[in-house]
Amino acid sequence: MKMNRGEGLPDAFRSADPDCHHQMVFARRAAGSDIRMLLLGESGTGKTRLARGIHEWSPRAAGPFVEVNCAAIPDELLESELFGHVRGAFSGAVSDREGRFESAHGGTLFLDEIGELPLRLQAKLLRAVQDGQFERVGENTTRQVDVRILSASNQDLQARVDAGQFRADLFYRLAVATVELPPLRTRPRDLAATLDRFIEEHALKLAPALRRKLEAHPWPGNFRELENVFACLQLHAVNGRVEDFPLPEGRPPGTVSPPAEAAAPATAFPEGAPTDTAPQVSPRESEEARRLRQALAAHNGNRSRAARSLGIDRTTLWRKLHRYNLA
To answer: Alpha-carbon distance 107 to 110, whole Å?
Structure first.
């Protein structure tokens, strides 16, 4: 990557937005240490890319970079995925298998969507994070590894701690240093630069009205949504030019939703229903649930299409639907 001499920041991570620029410079500086880092931001803001950058800038760059999406692995398999298992530990365990902690020895382990980790696994993860020690599923032998832990979440983890859904001791051990990536809608200069880059990369010409529409769109899926839109724009181009394109409707998290009587789906809890049947969620998570309902309605309940429109995989969508009692 081309480097900016003044700050040692690769051009791919530079930002015209002061807040984002400050976060990137801090991440570049913290990469040289071995401290655990928590990357926060909405889906599609580039947390995985930044995690890879931190690894590449670190003294562990020659070691492995191992990524685990905690939301994409079923709960019953996640412990084995992280810590490994021995033959006979459970049905289907026909041989010994190392987990991701062992695979990352000498390098970096990136735990994406850490907020999705079940409470029952958080105590075991706490010990592995703190001491580098764990046992494979089905054995009593303690193993020791040397890994740097990076984690990421698009949720308000502090709110989940307050709600008893995430262990406070684990949260504070993961968040020794925190980097929060601002959403694309708050970075108009970065949006304009990214549009220019995508237009050049895809060899497209956009009508002025379409360019203005793209600049005004709130981009709730951030860079991932923008990438998906440009993939579709290529299909709509005639002789390399696109006159118009129907952007998916969406509101950024935290904005006001339509009145409940006009927007409430059939799965919403009726007024006066017992509140202990509904998960306790923060305003940001309430907005996420609304977006899930909207995506499903827009695609007539087709979960694969809804997941693609949200920039997530089908397994992640399934887990989120179950969390909000929308399945």
So the answer is: 10
Strand pairing partners for 69?
112
| Cα 115–chain centre separation | 10
Record the pTM: 0.74
E strand or H helix at 197 = helix 188-201
8 Å CB contact between 177 and 37? yes
Per DSSP, 78 falls in state: H
E strands of 222-278, at which residues?
241-242
The DSSP symbol for 243 reads: -
40 secondary structure, DSSP code: E
Query: 109 near 148, Cβ under 8 Å?
Result: yes
Question: In this predicted model, what pLDDT tens digit does every residue of 241-265 receive, in sequence order?
Answer: 999 999 876 655 544 444 433 333 4
| Distance of alpha carbon 198 from alpha carbon 203, whole angstroms | 8
- Classified as helix, coil or strand, 3 is strand
Q: List domains and CATH numbers for the chain.
A: 3-180 (3.40.50.300), 184-242 (1.10.8), 260-269+276-323 (1.10.10.60)
pLDDT at 293: 85
Q: Which residues of the chain have pLDDT under 70?
A: 1-8, 249-285, 311
